[in-house]
Write a structure and sequence with these properties.
Elements (H helix, E strand, L loop, with lengths): L8 H17 L2 H10 L7 E4 H7 L5 E9 L9 E7 L1 H9 L3 E4 H7 L6 E3 L2
Parallel strand pairs: 1-2, 2-3, 2-5, 3-4
Helix pairs in contact: 1-2
Length: about 120
Amino acid sequence: MKRTLPTNPKTRRLIRLLRRASRSSNVGVWRDLSELLSVPTRKKISVNVSKIDKFAKEGEFIAVPGKVLGFGNITKKVDVAALSFSPSARQKITSAGGRAITLEVLLNLNPRGRGVKILR
């Protein structure tokens, strides 16, 4: 069976960008994110805000290769980067003092990938 990539052009562009950054800087976190973004649609990742609150430390970068959903509460100030956010998740993250950004913005903010934790 032939393996196919996502059909969304923005996601495909992001995958190529992450792979290129991984090769040029020799950073494994970007390669891992690109592989997790390349999974089939039926295996797409979604993470609730409560899981982020459970596993994140204050001031950390959290990368989610999928969608962040708004179930639960978040009490820590963390920067969350994801493919997409539900409106309630974005509101809860910003009200806790954190930032809800895209993966591309995270790559520009932290090109070496230091302190980035991947949640799935």
